[in-house]
Design brief:
The complex is a heterotetramer, with two copies of chain A and two copies of chain C. Chain A folds into three domains: 72 residues, no CATH class; 126 residues, Butyryl-CoA Dehydrogenase, subunit A, domain 2, CATH 2.40.110; 142 residues, Up-down Bundle (Butyryl-CoA Dehydrogenase, subunit A, domain 3), CATH 1.20.140.10. Chain A is α+β, with helices and mostly antiparallel strands. Chain A is built from twelve helices and eight strands. The two termini of chain A are 14 Å apart. Chain C starts with a helix and ends in a 7-residue tail after the last helix. Chain C has two domains: 191 residues, Acyl-CoA dehydrogenase/oxidase, N-terminal domain (Butyryl-Coa Dehydrogenase, subunit A, domain 1, Orthogonal Bundle); 130 residues, Butyryl-CoA Dehydrogenase, subunit A, domain 3 (Up-down Bundle), CATH 1.20.140.10. Chain C is α+β, with helices and mostly antiparallel strands. In chain C, a hairpin with a 4-residue loop joins strand 3 and strand 4. Chain C has twelve helices and seven strands. Chain C has a five-stranded mixed β-sheet. A two-stranded antiparallel sheet of chain C has the order 6-7. Chains in contact: A-B, A-C, A-D, B-C, B-D, C-D. Chains B and C meet through helix 2, helix 8, helix 9, helix 10 and helix 11 of B and strand 6, helix 10, helix 11 and helix 12 of C.
Chain lengths: 374, 374, 335, 335
Amino acid sequence: MDFDLSEELKQYGKKVREFSLKEFSNKVASIYDIQEQYPDELRIKALKEGIIDFSNPWKTMIGIEEMCRVDPGLGISVTVPFFGAEVLMLHGSDHLKEKYLGKVAAGEKIMGLGVTEPGGGSDVAGLKTVARKEGNKYVVNGSKMFITNGTIADFFVMLVRTAHPDDPAKRHRGLSVLVVERNFKGFDSNKLTGKLGVRATNTAELILNNVEVPAENLVGDEGKGFYYIMEFFNISRIFVAAQSIGIAQGVLDRTTDFLKNLEKNGDYVGEERKFKLAEMATRVEASRLLMYKAASFLFNYNPNPTLTSMAKGYASETASFAAETAMEITGQTGLNSEIERFFRDSKIMEIWEGTSEVEKIVISRMILKGDKNE
Amino acid sequence: MDFDLSEELKQYGKKVREFSLKEFSNKVASIYDIQEQYPDELRIKALKEGIIDFSNPWKTMIGIEEMCRVDPGLGISVTVPFFGAEVLMLHGSDHLKEKYLGKVAAGEKIMGLGVTEPGGGSDVAGLKTVARKEGNKYVVNGSKMFITNGTIADFFVMLVRTAHPDDPAKRHRGLSVLVVERNFKGFDSNKLTGKLGVRATNTAELILNNVEVPAENLVGDEGKGFYYIMEFFNISRIFVAAQSIGIAQGVLDRTTDFLKNLEKNGDYVGEERKFKLAEMATRVEASRLLMYKAASFLFNYNPNPTLTSMAKGYASETASFAAETAMEITGQTGLNSEIERFFRDSKIMEIWEGTSEVEKIVISRMILKGDKNE
Amino acid sequence: MNEQAELMRSAAREFAEKYLKDVATKIEREGIGSDIKEKILQQGFLGATLSPDMGGAGLDPLSQRLMLFEFAKVSPSVSAYIFFHNDIVSKVLETRSDKESIRNLLEGKDNYGIYWPGLMEGAKTNSSEKVMERVINSSCNKTIGLFSDGKVYLVEGKNEPVKDFKPLGLRGMGICNFFPEKRVEYGKKEVLEDLLIKSSGDIASIFLGIAEGSLEKTMEYTRVRKTFNEPLKNYEPVAFKMAELESELEIMKYSLFSDEADEVRLLMLKNMSASFSKKATKYALQFHGGYGYLEDFGVEKFYRDSVALSAIIYRPVEDKRFLASKIYGDRSGFL
Amino acid sequence: MNEQAELMRSAAREFAEKYLKDVATKIEREGIGSDIKEKILQQGFLGATLSPDMGGAGLDPLSQRLMLFEFAKVSPSVSAYIFFHNDIVSKVLETRSDKESIRNLLEGKDNYGIYWPGLMEGAKTNSSEKVMERVINSSCNKTIGLFSDGKVYLVEGKNEPVKDFKPLGLRGMGICNFFPEKRVEYGKKEVLEDLLIKSSGDIASIFLGIAEGSLEKTMEYTRVRKTFNEPLKNYEPVAFKMAELESELEIMKYSLFSDEADEVRLLMLKNMSASFSKKATKYALQFHGGYGYLEDFGVEKFYRDSVALSAIIYRPVEDKRFLASKIYGDRSGFL
């Protein structure tokens, strides 16, 4: 057994932390938050300085954690231009990979994932966006909701229905993944404003009105889209765990400083707040261990959905628990500090990439099927 | 990073599990529980079959978990004859080690640890048992409470006061550790009956009335006893974490079986119970990772009190959470099964070897001191 | 609170103080003595809710709640003993106007056991009709029992001690194996389910009595017990938690001990008090440290009883679904 | 519930329905409009608790609680706006029988901000007297402020918008930086602490209003929103949790909206409702999924407001210690 990160990863984490501390000051983060503005300069800067390295998933994970620890909204914004890339990497044709992925890595393009629909959510297979095959193209009609990078991405990896199985129980079949470009005719998007948190990230509704997509933009096989996307969520969940742990560690850092200051000034601290600090720290540590263990399976091409869902579910609940507790401990001081922003940012962790409820369904199903999670 | 136990440890765990399944049937466990009887035959059998191996702390830890998973009362009873041995190992003279420890390992003797006093508990330094030096012996007066193996141990590693510092803030000094034999004159013990759980273990009150202890029975240096005992708790807590995880895993196993059975018979399960199962499983997994990480520091001669207290605190709360949840999920069935015994056994985990409150004090103190728990 | 209720509360409190307090631990170890059972009958606690034409006192629901609460504070077993006879046995007998059985009950000739495996989702049902295993109330000569045919019977027969088993809770009532000699049908499973719903307020009273009993001891203990030279109550984690628990208890009691409490509110209180009593008794034990773990201190029994009682008369799935459906005004929570 | 209370409840409910419901989100974005402030004055909600000889309606405590509750259900900002003026400003002015200021308040000439950094353990105190930063109520022309000398002042001056900062909660009230021109001492820090203790029931009413507002929306949403072809309410984890939350709310409301509620019980309810409102609004958001995260749906504001209000008027350390000491009848929880 070995709980140490490699020297390379430690150095990388340190580098990301330094970058974040330099670039994500409270003042900067606060402005992007208030203005609901995507920090495109920071995205480019991070790419230039080699802070974003999607070639190594361990680095991605650790980078996300370190950035979100300094500011969740900016951290997520900077690391999300690749959102959905794994679907293309694993199942896209060489042509698609070359045409689309390369430019994302070069910082020239931004991509997005189009799965969720209005009225959809956890029930992915219930989606209503339809792609009708006509000759060598698909004609797509429907809409997508809560799409990250929705008004800034150049293209989307999108889940659509290409067939209608007679048996409703088989509706997972008949779904396919297409690459849809923003500049295709009939494509439209509306930015969603007034989000509680992660306001620097870009979120939108997409509208597809007879959008014509070349047949070559089909990712993998027709009818297998649902499985590709589930496979993707099993990967992306580990990154949400990293976001969550970044948030939780971030408020833990700040709460520790707050209490240290009280002690230093000879002010009253009281055991109750110390106990809460201990609970926060314990949960952060436990979350991180779950994430590392899940990652050690996942990044070794041996994904363990039970562990991944445990890591995502537990870490996201920890983020929101830690942020709430930090607000409680720091009170008025927290209200006028970064902590309130972390608090607002934290809640989405329990919702996106599989709600806490979905994680529990996955875990219990695996256990009752006899999975020993080993 | 590597989350795998060595092949040797895995095999050892398997062997312990097989032994426990064979020897700790519900019927056997139930009788010892009802009669509040220490299972001396099982202790000897386990030693003979090589199930108890205190030469390797990893084995001890894993052995405790596997035994407690089958039955906590018997599992603890069988693994506790060495209780306090680390104090002797680390600080005892060669003479003491030879005289006392060898026979424990051979199964000929049982030992115990005498720290807690009536009215004492978390405040170890407040103890009132006094050892007065007279020539080449100590004369000990006082009493000890909640002493495991109290009426069956042949000798005790006992914390006593040998000096009275003027400054109450310095009362941690002036404490020393003596080896006190049961057959010393003036030693008496009363078995405590009517325990809620772990009823197969032996617990007693000790009375010391002018007990004469040879000066050579002093362990280590006079006045350093408090620190030896704190060091010991930092070790023993990891084994309480193992007991706790055994309990939690044990009720998780049984609850899983219960729900699987319902599913198999086509009975209603409902999402709420599945969610609770997922929560139990997640906490068990997280507890075990905390324990392993703490152990990887501790057993490498690099103890990390923050991690040890996190592991003990979180695992013990998980044991009691899991047992309660199991009772809730299984209801009447649980009431008439082993689960009710696990439930009764679980609560002591949050009390002995440092209450949950003490663990939180340790954790928060280390964090506010600047410990990064890395 | 009406006057009858106040009177009943004082009577029950006095009784508990005078006859139960000093022997509470003895009751746990040896069962409710026949002298106590006799006195409970004499004072009219048992069967008190029966209507006057059935020979009872027609006790109002609020008074019954207060009575069960006061007993549970001292001895949950005694409270449960009265509960089972008043809320289940009497009601079952009343549905059939079985005056003779009621008379025997009120005269102390009969003492009933309760037996309902399979009343809750997933609980094992009984298949043998030769022996009813682990009937609650070790000294019963009759039993209200639910059999595997889904019907409720009044069963006469003989009890026998259960070997090698000690129940988790309600040890004062104890359990026995019961060998039926004669049985008469008294309705279907739904009769019992319906009675459990209707008894929501009474069940809540027992749970809250258990909680208050354990918290009273803990208030006292945390005042006198010192650690690091300070009473436990001076430490935030103890004081704040006790304040929190006392608050929840107080607010629930206010609502429960009101004439206005209707069916839905009593259902709410049953659910809340079931989980509250587990939480409160667990902290009570924790704050007693090692001493809490010992029978002699009379704290651990509250923890055991809250969990055991939940498993016996509180149905987490069914009760919550029932309440949710009431609140939504539509069937809910069945997936 | 007395008749005055019932009437006040209906009046507040009607007002909220008629003037606030449709503009609740607008209030969040742009602040409480002067038209609404005007109507609040006209209807006598603001200053209602002042005694008649001070020009108020001498509203009884229960009616005030019901009023704040009804407003908070729709707009916590409006409820807090009335609360600060009724429970803090009016009371401070009343202690000095400052009839002129009260008249100006009741005539709508003055609009007060609240400023009390350092009122709670560990909060940063203000050291500058040139600018009062982040005063609650963006359009105030006067402020009740706690200064670093530990004294409370009535401050006249000018407000200025705060740049690059958006408050977590009570956005309808907003915040400003306030530049004092004149200040008059109105007592010590303890005056404010005392008022916060005395306002326990009113604070609880706002918290419970927030909770009910969010739960009402969630009841409705979980009825209509489907996942896997079934309404959310049909799933146990949703239905059971909603039943649990509705139960806690109901039991607390029953106790809070009673004439009998005394000081200790109101303190209990303040503590309970503060944590309950966070729990309830968090689940409300969760059950709305992604939509809950958007301002337009009017759910996230309740979550924000419950946490912000806690940080502003609920003091976890001091309030719990105060209550614990009341319950123990002796100083407790200070270590």
